[in-house]
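Per your request, structure below.
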């Protein structure tokens, strides 16, 4: 591995340690008693959580535990049946129309499936959100796109189409598209889903390098346990619609909570009944 990679890992490890020792940061996003029922099932059951500003937060838990629904509430794609979602000092439930769209422009999302347009090449896929906003001329858009592709090590790949890309390259394009708008909040929905361990590691390293360069408040849903604990400051554990634990990534790995401990260790024996 390169010296640059080792320096990055050392820097981030030191940041994680400092956050563990003194887990203080301003609040970027807050849920107060959020409830959501879908198809007769309570997916979020009185969720109280805080996402710290300027940190990487991982939301983990069993499938169906409410992680993706939480992400949709953050950007206002879903509204709670009860409770409140706050983005800084703004209560999301009070926003609609133009004001809600303005708030959403502070976010970018990298989707689990990458969600690239098959009919567009890499360059046009990455340029898409900027062209939709119509705030920049084409020369400025192309400059941003080339910069974003460079940041994910895809310089010179703009002419390729999604069906010409590997799974890992598609994830990189999706990340470049999320970065090109220069957001305040970066949301990542299972950024390493379906990847082999080596490519998974490379995507996590890329997300970490992006964070160290930009300091965006980053929220990442992940099943990559225990790997994910190396790549975030803060962890929220969701289980059956409730927050079971929240704290620094190092604190969560040391927890004695039986459900959380069983989940992060992948043990068959314990309160979570699988078979």
């Amino acid at each position: 591995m390169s010296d640059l990679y080792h320096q990055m890992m050392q820097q981030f490890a030191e940041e994680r340690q400092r956050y563990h020792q003194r887990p203080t940061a301003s609040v970027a996003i807050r849920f107060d008693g959020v409830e959501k029922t879908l198809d007769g099932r309570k997916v979020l059951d009185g969720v109280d959580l805080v996402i710290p500003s300027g940190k990487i937060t991982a939301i983990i838990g069993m499938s169906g535990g409410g992680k993706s629904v939480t992400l949709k509430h953050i950007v206002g794609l879903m509204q709670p049946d009860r409770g409140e979602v706050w983005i800084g000092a703004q209560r999301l439930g009070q926003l609609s129309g133009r004001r809600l769209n303005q708030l959403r422009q502070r976010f970018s999302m990298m989707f689990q499936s990458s969600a690239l347009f098959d009919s567009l090449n890499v360059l046009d896929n990455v340029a898409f959100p900027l062209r939709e906003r119509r705030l920049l001329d084409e020369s400025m858009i192309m400059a941003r796109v080339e910069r974003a592709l460079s940041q994910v090590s895809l310089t010179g790949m703009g002419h390729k189409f999604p069906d010409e890309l590997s799974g890992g390259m598609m994830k990189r394009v999706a990340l470049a598209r999320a970065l090109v708008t220069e957001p305040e909040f970066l949301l990542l929905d299972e950024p390493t889903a379906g990847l082999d361990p080596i490519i998974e590691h490379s995507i996590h390293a890329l997300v970490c390098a992006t964070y160290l360069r930009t300091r965006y408040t980053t929220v990442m849903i992940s099943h990559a346990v225990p790997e994910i604990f190396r790549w975030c400051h803060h962890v929220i554990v969701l289980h059956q619609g409730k927050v079971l634990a929240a704290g620094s990534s190092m604190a969560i790995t040391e927890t004695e909570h039986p459900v959380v401990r069983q989940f992060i260790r992948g043990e068959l024996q314990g309160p979570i009944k699988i078979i």
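The radius of gyration is 19 Å.

Regards,
D.
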